[in-house]
TrEMBL record:
It holds the Pfam family HATPase_c_2. It comes from the Bacteria. This is ATP-binding protein. PANTHER family: ANTI-SIGMA-F FACTOR RSBW (PTHR35526:SF3), ANTI-SIGMA-F FACTOR RSBW-RELATED (PTHR35526). It comes from Streptomyces cadmiisoli.
Length: 144
């Protein structure tokens, strides 16, 4: 594995640390999708969570300089997706390579799919947390 995964509470909270490079975006998405499957999220919620995570990771790889951290936490009826990038902005990369019409939709998508979105900026990092409501898991829906 190219990054480090830390399980603080097995099955409920995981953090993955990776280089903030676009080559690792797929690694992060697959890791998150597999984990959410193991946690038993219903398919619609899982798909929304993977899309949110993908958008936040894409932002981190585009704007972060050195590393990124991806956190997933499932507690009671809440799924938290946290992505942080560190090292300050990349100079001369990202925005100029895209047309104005193809840039800036990611956080709008995240805001639409999540119940709450929080963005915090510090001198050398951006931290974004999206919160989703979990009504039931796949295992619970099979028993009803």
């Amino acid at each position: 594995m190219y990054g480090n995964a830390f399980a603080d509470r097995p099955g409920h909270q995981v953090r993955l640390a990776l280089p903030a490079e676009s080559a690792y975006a797929g690694v992060a998405r697959h890791f998150g999708a597999d984990l959410l499957d193991r946690w038993g999220l219903v398919p619609d919620l899982r798909d929304s969570a993977v899309l949110i995570m993908g958008e936040l990771v894409a932002n981190a790889t585009e704007h972060g300089r050195s590393r990124m951290s991806i956190g997933l936490e499932l507690a009671e009826r809440t799924l938290r997706i946290r992505v942080a990038d560190f090292g300050g902005p990349r100079s001369g990369r990202g925005r100029r390579a895209r047309s104005a019409g193809s840039f800036g939709r990611g956080l709008h998508i995240v805001r639409t799919l999540s119940q709450r979105l929080r963005v915090r900026r510090s001198r050398n990092s951006w931290r974004v947390e999206a919160v989703l409501r979990v009504e039931k898991t796949a295992s619970a829906s099979r028993t009803t």
